[in-house]
Amino acid sequence: MSFSPANITALVIAASFAAGLNIYATVFTLGILARTQWVSLPPGLDSLGHTWVLVVCGIMFAIEFVADKIPGFDMIWNALHTIVRVPIAALVAYHASSQLTPQMQVLATAIGAAVALAAHGSKTALRAAVTPSPEPISNIALSSTEDVAAVGLTWFATHHPVIAASFALILLGGAAIAARALLRAIQKPLRRFFGTDEKEKRASVEPLA
Prior knowledge:
By secondary structure, the protein is an all-alpha fold. Helix content is about 80%, strand content about 0%. The chain has helices at about 5-20, 25-35, 50-65, 75-80, 80-95, 100-130, 135-160, 160-205.
């Protein structure tokens, strides 16, 4: 890929979205590509090909692959990773844009952090809506889809960054809409339940008055 500002920005958007889904899979994929030199990446990302980076990300990817598919525990895992996915995505964006001007590099870093936060937030909201389901298949299917999307989108971004970035933004919009709809669907029964409960409490207190 050519290292034009447009391509680097597109790469940052796509990779940051993938990082919001699974930071370890994203960094591991970029690291493998940098190590094998399968594709040309921005020079700032060469450090991702170091052995220790690949080993740590590979181990953490394996752990997350299991942890993220356990209903209930996945919510704790995702909440804790708010302080992991967003900062690392911003750091990757910072290094990926090292060839740009300082102002553009700061902007690319901010974009990377914002996209990763939005993707992470949408993922967490969707998981909050799906986790209460009594069967584990929906959690496993959703988590597996996220893993595949993180790896696939990262790889595709290194070949066709603009298309990958467009696809990431479309997915982000769709995920946000789906998460909002699912959360509303859950909130309605809960509001009815608590509303009924409140009425019963008032009814029991009024005769005593």
